User: Fold these one by one.
Assistant:
Number 1:
Amino acid sequence: MLICLLAIESSCDDTSIAILKDGKVLANIISTQKIHEKYGGVVPENASRQHMESMIPTLREALAKAQINLTEIQAIAVTRGPGLIGALVVGLAFAKGLSLALNIPLIEVNHLEAHVMSLFLNDRVPPFPFLCLTVSGGHTQLLKVTDHNTMYLLGQTLDDAAGEAFDKIGKLLGLPYPAGHHIDRLAKTGQPLFKFTLAKVAGLNYSFSGLKTSVLYFLQNKLKENKNFITENLNDLCASVQEAIITMLCVTLTKAAKQFHLTHIGIAGGVSANSRLRTKIQSLAEDNHWNIYIPQLEYCTDNAGMIAISAYYKFKKSEFADEKITALARYTISPILQE
Ligand code: KG4
Ligand code: ZN
């Protein structure tokens, strides 16, 4: 029997609905909320309102693209957390309504697990166990993945996430929110000429808040001498900041791979769309004899396709959610795995 699922993602500022038939995405509609650009970051209440507005049009678009009728859907998958409570509640309430109306089960998905599971939307999938670096706007995690939806935290950021570092430093540089892809684009014609102190953190953890402070002081000094310093050096500044973040990510990733003897390596989450990270990981793969797994760009930033594939493996095991589940702002992955 072909499994046909509908998945809903609403944890932050993207309303997304996907339809998956037998492990293949038929539609993955993403409605990105533009309102947050105006405020330089996500205002939770605005996000919830926008999800309310976009949910049904996004569903209609997904059904039309997939050429599927709601009656063909066998389960409704939804992000339960982590994320903004108000935003998650909109998605969960909509999912529960659909599951009740269609009389089909509900499947709850952890957004962070789903980022990792986005690797299973590729034709070439990683074998178990593999190491995954999840780099999003809210999280930076190193995970040992031992099965579909089974993963152990090896290390994580102690303060800002990598995506957050891109966004906050981008703001200092006068770039719109979210700044990650702007920095990526501008860095292509810049050189990493400026060097910043990189935090050294114990174990397999990360810290990015020091970099933001170091860039802030650097800019304040330079702007005293030349008020046009940022505009005159924007591309080199972007390349330098990007290089600092990517270097930090890759040093600890390499350490984790060696420590846990893992050679199948994946990256996932919004920052895995970064072109410099993608090329750097390829060159690390050649040096260290790794096999690399990277999501297609469409599945790097938040999307319901990854929620659907995560739910697909849960459906196969009949892991259905209770109808009383509520949203979780924090939703941790399994505790730290000791070597
Ligand atoms: O996974 P995601 O869509 O949302 C969360 O779960 O947080 O990640 C969003 C993050 C933002 O911080 C954004 O700036 C960053 O991913 N991002 C990038 C790029 N595209 C998105 N960072 C660097 N380079 C990119 N090309
Ligand atoms: Zn995400």
Note: Strands lie at 4-9, 14-21, 24-32, 75-81, 106-110, 130-135, 140-147, 150-156, 264-268, 291-293.
Number 2:
Amino acid sequence: MTTSDHSAKLARFGVSMERNLLDGFDRLIAAKGYANRSEAIRDLVRGELVRRSWTNLKAKRVAVLALVYDHEHSDLLHRLTHVQHEHGDLIVSSLHVHLDCDNCLEVLTLKGPASRIERLAEQMLSIRGVKYGQLMRATTGKDL
Ligand code: NI
């Protein structure tokens, strides 16, 4: 794609906001390393649209679930395995990294109805012994 093709699809609009809000935004985008305000605003809008698109809970979605847990914690491995077998059709792939003597990192790629992905994440994150967990809701951009 040439630059002119790309810019032909761009639309411009003006934004008004309070000076102190803009100062805070400029500090934020500098800290994050954005080249300019436009790029930062595009990312904010994309993020919000992805969040909104997840509210259609029957739609097929893709997500990544990361968990850190202590594998010595009693019953934890059994529970984690049990939940994963119950929802085996949602799990596209999984990765296990032994972080140190006690801790493991597990990363699951999930694909299926948003409601089931959310439920699986809640079940796994609430298991005792899970120290950290994060569900990253992804999108192809086609549904935005
Ligand atoms: Ni491990």
Note: The chain has a mean pLDDT of 87.
